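To whoever is on call:

I kicked off a structure prediction for a single chain this morning and the downstream step that reads the tokens threw a length-mismatch warning. I double-checked the sequence; it's 221 residues and nothing unusual in it as far as I can see. Pasting both halves so you can look.
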Amino acid sequence: MKQIPKSERPREKALMHGIDSLSNRELLALLIRSGTANHSAFDIADDLLKNGLGALSRLSFSDLCKIDGISKVKALEILAWNQLSHRISYEQIQDKDVVSDPESLIHWCKMKLGALQQEHFLVVFLDSHNAVQGYKVLFTGTLNSSLVHPREVFKEALNVSCSKILVVHNHPSGNLDPSAADLMVTENLVNSGKMMKIPVIDHLIVSGSDYFSFYEHGLME
């Protein structure tokens, strides 16, 4: 870092031009602060970013500690930063009509599930004003109609006395096209919701960078 002109060092650059002037590499270098004898803070940032920024959320404590220059303390700091990002994103969807303005909800869903390497099925509970009451991951594994049973979904919905629900699951492959099982699960949930008077307003499939909405594609009939 000492070899870099002072005005180009992350801390000085952020102070002069604002934090948003920093690249992902520079932001991580600022968080890392100092390197080792063999690896600068930028070298360590490059190792963290070699699979993309989204891959950072998949790294566990042990994964981080295997990277040259990442101590246990630095690993915890990175995990804390990641967890705070998730919590800030979730806080932004509370007390907000996520039906009229779904962008922040979609962003949170991508952060929550998009980087996971196994499929997770999550239910978001909404009140009568479309504000988020809470959420719960109900199933893990390849989605199918026997795994995702409406009985379990609506038991949780009744427990929290919500007015409607929205369901989300991830496709680790990144291919967001709904499978035949996805379509069957959605149809079963929508029909059960009508009987229970708890509408299913959408089913989202997410990756780390994109999403597919059953509602937007006219598949919620």
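Update from on-call: the warning came from a stale cache, not from the record. Cleared it. Sanity check on the structure: The chain has eight helices and five strands.
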